[in-house]
Amino acid sequence: MKNRSYVSTLSSVSVQRASSQVILLLPILAVWIATNAHAASATWDLNPSNGDWNTAANWTPPTVPNGSGDTVSFAVSNIAAVSLSSDTEVGRITFDSGASEFNIIVSPLRTLTISGDGISNNSDISENFSIVVDSVSNTGTMIFTHSATAGNMTTFTNEANATNVFAFGASTRFLETSSADHGTFINNGAATSDAFGGVTEFFAESSAANATIFNQPGLVQGAHGGTTFVLDVAHADKATFISNGANVSGADGGNTTFSHRSRADDATLIANGGVNGGGGGQIVFAEASSGAASRVELFGNGFLDLSTRFSGNGIRIGSIEGDGVVILGTEPLKVGSNSLSTLFSGVIQSFGAITKVGAGTLTLSGANTYTGGTTVTGGTLKINNRSGSGTGTGAVSVSGGTRAVGALFRARLRLGLGAGRARSSTLAKAQASRSPLPSRAS
């Protein structure tokens, strides 16, 4: 019994001692865990040995930041061109106040993923990310995921495909609920015939937020421009998308495409015209995508293409202005949801219809050729064309709002040449026999 009591007492003391040791170690263990949870968080050195992100000696502490919980800091450095030699993921990238002007290069066949808070630029200069392509069209990829944001005063350049393999160039992708924030994105056009440009893509529920996105044109005959795709249920928010026209005959302009059930929200969508026979910038709404309250500006042979858009309810955009081209589809285009007053002096073509909605005034002054008719349900539709028919060749009806007409329109009404009524207008009949403008000027 004495032995049992001794053993029992000894065991009890041992447990107490072990428990005391564990209790004493717990704060140390907590500190160790807190310290090592971001063990790979680091700051780029003032004097790194080279520009390789994936070399530990280039960082303080000497470790490679490559984890979803890692924070990377860039301050002042004598080497500001930093390239990836391996796939890399970090949670956050911070540019400190007074930081050098960096260029983070996402090399061909490499991916840089930002999966935490995103990018924070506290410097007073723009910081750059280059997503590049090699001579045989291997591309780099940059990915924002979860709720990561692209930051402010940041510029992302997606290089074009380098060969004629009918593939896109380098890309920046937004997944889940990530955001382009206030970043600037440049999708370069190709310099080789049949090659495609760089790409910015929005998937899932991601947002273009307040970004500015440039889709640059192809640089030689047969080359395609840079492209922005807004897909799934992603949305454009208040971003500005600029698709520039080509300067070379036979080259395509830049392209902004909304597809699936994505929406343009309050974005500004600009398609600039090409010169010297170059193709115009393109804005495309396909499938069940929505123009929402977006402001559409078309110039020269820059165009808005609705021919592949379908939902059964028509497509609504905020406003349209400029002197470019609109290609209607099978559903009516409802213009005016942002209630701005705008002038469109370009050409609206194809077999669709126009419906004026909202409180603003839409002035049509071009020789339009669309055949589906015109309806006014809100605001004012002003017809002020100098030639042809401002309302195409279909009937015009007013079920709300007003229709105002210019002097030339009123003169035609007195002569029995009422624009927009194909059954009784010899002018409209003459227009109907004319070939519509091509969807892509070249």
Layout: helices, strands, pairs:
Layout: H1 2-36, E1 42-44, E2 59-60, E3 67-74, E4 81-83, E5 88-95, E6 103-106, E7 111-121, E8 127-131, E9 141-144, E10 152-158, E11 171-174, E12 182-187, E13 199-202, E14 212-215, E15 227-230, E16 240-243, E17 255-258, E18 268-271, E19 282-285, E20 295-298, E21 303-305, E22 315-317, E23 319-322, E24 325-327, E25 333-335, E26 342-344, E27 347-349, E28 354-356, E29 361-364, E30 374-376, E31 380-383, E32 396-398, E33 402-405, H2 407-414, H3 426-432
Parallel strand pairs: 1-3, 3-5, 4-6, 5-7, 6-8, 7-9, 8-10, 9-11, 10-12, 11-13, 12-14, 13-15, 14-16, 15-17, 16-18, 17-19, 18-20, 19-21, 20-23, 21-24, 22-25, 24-27, 25-28, 26-29, 28-30, 29-31, 30-32, 31-33
Antiparallel strand pairs: 1-2
How far is the first residue's CA from the last residue's CA?
105 Å
β-strand amount: 25-35%
What integer is the average pLDDT? 86
- Please tell me how large the radius of gyration is: 30 Å
Give the number of helices.
Answer: 3
**Tally of DSSP β-strands:** 33
Strand count, sense and closure of the main sheet? 14 strands, mixed
